Known about the structure:
It comes from Anopheles coluzzii (African malaria mosquito). This is SOCS box domain-containing protein. The protein is of the alpha+beta class. The protein has 2 domains: about 190 residues, Protein Transport Mog1p, Chain A, CATH 3.40.1000; about 35 residues. It has 10 helices and 7 strands. A 5-stranded antiparallel beta sheet has the order 3-4-5-6-7.
Amino acid sequence: xxSDASENNSVPLDKTNDELQRSRSPLETVAEEAEGYxxxxxTPATEWxxxxxxxxxxxxxxxxxxxxxxxxxxxxxCGRDVIEISRSDLMIVLIYVIALETGLIPKGGSLPPSCxxxxxxxxxxxxxxxxxxxxxxxxPLDWFGARAGPYRFELELVHExxxxxxxxxxxxxxxxxxxxxxxxxxxxGQKAGFSVTVPISFHVPAVNGNRLPLCYQNLSGLSVKLKxxxxxxxxxxxxxxxxxxxxxxxxxxxxxLVARVMExxxxxxxxxxxxxxxxxxxx
Length: 283
């Protein structure tokens, strides 16, 4: 009898194992599941290196979860047939997710409760998986309204210690043949912007609404290129100008600290340091 009662009250083993093997995002919602979010299956034999975290980890077999979420959201809610979706549209989706990975969000976007300033989470500077997954499923579809003109949308950094409340930029992307010319224009503090040219077909070989990984290829180099030439320079510029924090780089060092470091260097080392600082963009 005791054995029967124990079996009646016990949780099925299959269900228990299933729960143990599922790693769920803290921001996972029913809406996200409906849009294609799939929790990562975790087993003792899981090869973590094979699971993509960032866009540059994606392959033709498996996309980074954030990119897959944003792409599925776009296909589901854009209101167009697949044949009406251009490769440059998918490139903008890709650039948006890369921007999220660098710490930017859509301008005016509301932070999820778990990432608002509080006891356990004060600020964020760069990659935050919760924010990336949250905004990946909230891609502003009005960015794709002007079919004939350039893509134009605004992004911003969120930092509670910023001396300026609007650490924003405008991203303008224009298709020219098979090239996408992407310009990032800071709203404050810098007259010149950042620009990069991307070959569209090389990275977006097809528009495939059923097999999403086939939409992209060669993402490793592209993601690093966009981060290094657009988003990271913009973020570093904003931090050095409007956020009281020291960046772990020469660009992030205050002038007085650079002068103090030079006091400890001999003349050849001092000249080399000055050459390096001169080659970097002005802080």
